[in-house]
Design a protein that fits this description.
- By secondary structure, the protein is mainly α.
- It has helices at 14-35, 38-63, 66-71, 86-92, 101-132, 138-147, 157-166, 189-211, 216-224, 229-240, 242-257, 261-266, 274-279, 289-299, 301-309, 311-319, and strands at residues 168-171, 174-177.
- The protein has a domain at 107-271: MetI-like fold (Orthogonal Bundle), CATH 1.10.3720.
- Helix content is 66%, strand content 2%.
- It has a two-stranded antiparallel sheet with strand order 1-2.
Length: 325
């Protein structure tokens, strides 16, 4: 009786490990050299520099006293620095004919946050249905949702406004079909509905692509354990789709926050957002444009906070599905 022996491969010594590391770095440098060029890097830096100059000048102007902005350019701050927060305090108490910038800032929050929540809630449910529920005409309906992305927003403004004025009653957030329009002076419902409708095609398409990539074995295992669609959606789909949800939340927040057209048409005069007040902040003849500069940087604070808070989810959501295996 013979006893077989299993050959044992010798462990790599330190010299071999150094050679492997050297070869790895060599391939990395070669790939970096092929994918980048000094000319493209220099061109990108030059473009970024000239692109940033107007924004930097606007930032400097927002801190300069009004008298200085009327008599000299912003670049004189390097030889005669004089900064003040007066423009920001004046901008918050100024605005259009009905609202100050501070009031419209709160209106923007009241419009944007519910719209993002409504869009994510409806779009995630629709995306799950298109991805994992079999029903008649599913593919045809999904193609229809996808095709709605090419419809210009302006084409739907008048029909939707006609629907609100003739077929719905909106009083605060209550909607009753078939009655006449009543008090909407303090209502954000029209803006919420309009923004949610306009965001659904893209939201459903993006979330569907992410949710459909979830392994079918995970869904089947949950079904074998007796989980229904509700349990699968809330306990499995939503946690797994968090990067995609966060990515679209960032995009939708920025789109709605910076919107002027939809809010101007559908929002009542007491519910106008910050973009409407910014348009009237410079004065009748544009002689107070330094206030508009300060208001502009006040308006970008919240989107920046949202973006940096969800940045890691945003990057993961953009890269999800880019590679397979």
């Amino acid at each position: 009786m013979t006893i077989g022996t299993v050959p044992i491969e010798p462990l790599p010594d330190a010299r071999t490990a150094r050679e492997v590391a050297r070869e790895t770095r060599k391939h990395e440098k070669l790939a970096q050299k092929r994918l980048t060029s000094k000319g493209a890097t220099i061109a990108a830096i030059v473009i970024a520099f000239f692109w940033t100059i107007p924004t930097f000048g606007l930032l400097v102007t927002s801190f300069r006293p009004p008298a200085d902005t009327q008599t000299s350019g912003w670049w004189t701050v390097f030889t005669n620095p004089d900064f003040s927060l007066g423009n920001y305090s004046a901008a918050l108490t100024s605005g259009g004919t009905t609202l100050t910038l501070a009031e419209s800032f709160l209106n923007s929050l009241a419009i944007t946050i519910p719209v993002v929540a409504f869009s994510l809630a409806v779009a995630s449910l629709l995306a799950y249905a298109f991805a994992w529920i079999d029903f008649k005409f599913k593919n045809l309906l999904f193609i229809g949702v996808f095709a709605l992305q090419i419809v210009p927003l302006q084409m739907a403004l008048v029909p939707l406004l006609s629907l609100f004025s003739r077929g719905l009653t909106i009083n605060d957030v209550m909607i009753f079909p078939g009655l006449e329009l009543r008090e909407i002076d303090h209502s954000f419902a029209t803006v919420w509905i309009a923004h949610t409708i306009f965001s659904l095609p893209l939201a459903v398409f993006l979330l569907h692509n992410f949710i459909a990539e979830i392994p079918s074995e995970v869904i089947e295992a949950a079904r074998v354990d007796g989980a229904g669609h509700g349990q699968i959606f809330f306990r499995m789909i939503l946690p797994l789709a968090a990067p995609a949800l966060a990515s679209f939340a960032v995009l939708e927040f920025i789109w709605v926050w910076n919107d002027l057209l939809v809010a101007t048409i559908f929002a009542p005069s007491s519910s106008l957002p910050m973009t409407q007040s910014l348009a009237a902040l410079s004065g009748t003849w544009g002689n107070q444009w330094f206030l508009q500069a300060a208001g502009t940087f006040l308006s970008i604070l919240v989107p920046l906070i949202v973006f940096f808070a969800l940045q890691r989810f945003f990057v993961r959501g953009l890269l999800a599905g880019a590679t397979k295996g």
